[in-house]
Fold this protein.
Amino acid sequence: MTVVQKNCALLGDPFFLLLFDSDRGERARTLRDVMFHETEKTVQLGYRRFLCGFTAGVDLIFAETVLELRRKYPEITLESVLAYENEAASWEECTRERYYRLLGYCDREHLLQTRFTTGCLARRNRYLIDHANMLLAVSDGLLGNPLQAIHYAAVSGKSTLCISPSTLLTQKIG
């Protein structure tokens, strides 16, 4: 009998980088707590492989969350899915150092292309969803790549759990 591995894609809205990447304030801590709780629930549902887009902000918080959960659940894995090489080159030094430190703890790294091109972030999001059974996202679902990713997950038949950074409520889609 073959056991099917359950994979979860993790995706955050880069807009919230301004609000949450600095990890300051009660709202950022509360969002982190909600992300931790929802990620742990996916582990308890049998998800073992976590794929993360590794953009600054919410994605890095998701990566830290999985690594923290790995202490309690050593069987879970974290894989980075990088849209292009040197994506972090223009980031602030502290965020870039955090990015490279977290990459060092990944079980696997997927580099999708060497240079930035129009649409490469959307391609990364499609890769995340195509290789997952569900999507766990932080987004208000208003604009941009996260909204497109949530829509793509829905039409691909993947369930999505979306955490609103404004209200901190979760919504199941699909």
User: Anything to note?
Assistant: The longest strand covers residues 6-12. The helical segments are 17-20, 26-44, 58-72, 93-103, 120-130, 144-155. Residues 6-173 form a domain with the Rossmann fold fold (CATH 3.40.50.450).
